[in-house]
Amino acid sequence: MSKTKVICFANNKGGSGKSTTCSNVGYNLSQMGKRVLLIDGDMQLNLTLSFFPEDIALGFVQSGNNLYTAIKEQKSLQEYIVHTPYDGVDIVPSSTLMSSIEYELFTKWQREFILRKCLEPVKATGVYDYVLIDSPPTLGGWVMNIMCASDYLVVPVEASPWGLFGLANMFDFVGQVRQIAPNLNILGIAITKADERKNYFHQTVDALRGYENIKLLENYIRIDSSIEWAQDNSKPVGAYKKSSRSAKEYYDLTKEILEYADR
Asked: How many Cα atoms are found within 13 Å in the side-chain-facing hemisphere of 223?
């Protein structure tokens, strides 16, 4: 039985493409024959909305069948898994109540490891090859939980003048996490929203290559309206328009991530 590997997508800056990258990598892994569980760790529900229309996503909030309930009650995530419209892709939906998750964690025993504890029964089944976790754009106890539950970290970075803002703080935070979760590996930085015609794209690439011992993934995602249309239709871009440039770019990025994670 192969070991389930956990990859989280995190960046403390909003708009970096975390949810979009997480959803599309998850979908593409399923297209490669992998069994995938997605965990939506952000109160904005963007990962959940990548697979379900708003009324269904909000239904998960109202029913209590979501990640917030699992964490609050410290129950196995198995009880909160729902199937997406795509074979091989399941999800634990998020909730708008995740806005208060830091308060819920504050008084818990070993609060940094609650998500890992809730995830263990799922990993023990061996059903999934990969678990992908989307994170909120913060650096706090909940993101620490997500990282402590993960084997690998992918950091999506928007190729814009503001894309690098706060990234040094992010990696300092990761260093703190690794003091209590030494098995967390930074798989790499994934550039999103790239426009090769702009000088700041090349400046971003040069700056990211300057980070010592942190890999810059070769495949990056360029600006493409197909991504926005796919999001509007609650679909991964590969399912919405397989022939689009961004669908191919996300597929290539997924292959690159898989290459490092399967080592």
From this structure: 11
